[in-house]
Structure formats: structure tokens, C-alpha cells
Amino acid sequence: MSSLDEEYFDIDELQEGRDAGKNKNDVDLSENSDQDELQVAFKQGLLNKPGLFVSQIKKREPIYKKEEMLRKLSTFNTERDWIDTLQIKFNPELCYNDSVDQDLEREAAFYKQSLNSVQNAKQRLKALGIPTDRPSDYFAEMAKGDTQMDKIRRKILETKNIKERKENARRLRDEKKFARKVQKTREEQKLRAKKKLLDATKKHRKGNKAPLEEILKNPKFERKGGFQKKKMNRTARNTKYGFGGRKKGSKRNDKQSFNLM
């Protein structure tokens, strides 16, 4: 057998393979073209219109079976003991019939209604012989163990100690501030006394024959300037300082003074 016979090809299979490849390429090209069109439409804003994609949710129809509910209610046993239901009514005189805008009065009415209901229920329970108060020797088991309670106790003590330390620190700061203020006041008093003594000594040296102690005790003596000077009268002040008014240009010549020259 020749080599040509060994390399045998089926012409029909080869033709089918070519057709399949061609169809596959056509599908790929069509898909690419569709994607390109979608991208162009998205860029142009054609796919962002409101209401384009709206999910349709079907509303559930309400179920209202009145007859079945009434039939079921009739099967309930209404003749039960009060201890099983504990239904209580308050005094009808306590009904609130005023305006709903009066919040304070409305809340007070609710309080009175609740108090009256509790009192009536307590009387009925007492009549049935059911205890409502806890015995004096009753010890209930705590919800938290001793370990947890010790932690809480230590936490409370720690918080209390921190608070006390802060208060002590604040008190010490206030005391130091007050001490500095008192010290500053005393230093100022010493400086004023020293200044007064120096001024009195200067006055004594300048010729004041009074003793130094009398100069210091004299109420007319001031720290600045020694004794207070006597005020000048109006005539002396006018003679010394003039009569006021404009002083600038007062020595310039005018027409009258020029003619006198």
C-alpha cells in the first residue's frame, strides 16, 4: 500500500469542520457586535432611564376570615376562675374624659387607674388566701455569683478611691493658690509700708521737724509726694497758666501790631 493510501482523509468530515468553524466565527462576531452596541448605548445614557428596569412584585391579598375567627372564639372556655386570668378593672370614676392635649393630667389619671387596679387585685388575692408580700425570712438566690459581686464591689471601691484622690488633689491646688494669693498680698503690704517709710524719711531729712512717727501717723501724708499740697486759687492759676484758648500763633504780627512798629 502506498503512502497516499495511508494518509486517507474523509472529504465530508473536512467540509463539516470548515462549516462549523465558519459558523463559530460568525457567532463570535455577532456577540462582539452586540456588546459594542450595548456599550455605546450605555455611554449615551440610553440605559439609565428611570423605570427601565422595574421589578414586578405581586401584592399579597389580605386574609380576613371573620366567620372562622368567630367560630374559634366560641370554642374558648370563658367560664374560668379569676386566678387563671387575673383580669381586673379599675373604678369607672377614674376614667379620663378630658382633652388629650393635657399630658400631665392624662398621665396622672393613668397612675390613679393603675394604683386602683393594684389595690383591688391585692384585696381579691388576700380574700383567696394567696400571699402577696415576701416573708421577712425569705432569702432569694442572687442572679450573680459571689465572684461577680466581689468584682463589682472592688470596682465600686476603686471608683470611690479615684474620686477621693481627685477631690484631694483639687483641694490641694485650691489651698496652694490661696496661699500664693495671701503671700502676694503680704508682700505688697510690706512694699507699701517700706515705701511709706522711705517717703517719710525723705520729708524728715528735707526739713520737716516733726518726729518720724508723727509723720507716718498723719492722715494727710500720702505715699507719693508726701503731704498733700494746697490747691491754688483761681487768680493764681490764671496768672501762672493763663486763661486757656488757642496758644498756637498767638505771637504772630497782625495788622494792628505791624502799624505800631
Automatic annotation (TrEMBL):
It comes from the Eukaryota. This is Uncharacterized protein. The keyword DNA-binding does not apply. Residues 149-182 form a coiled coil. Belongs to the EBP2 family. Keywords: Coiled coil, Nucleus, Ribosome biogenesis. GO terms for biological process: ribosomal large subunit biogenesis; rRNA processing. Residues 15-27 have a biased composition (Basic and acidic residues). It is found in: Nucleus, Nucleolus. One of its GO terms (cellular component) is nuclear periphery. Residues 1-14 have a biased composition (Acidic residues). It comes from Meloidogyne enterolobii (Root-knot nematode worm). Required for the processing of the 27S pre-rRNA. Residues 1-33, 223-261 are annotated as: Disordered.
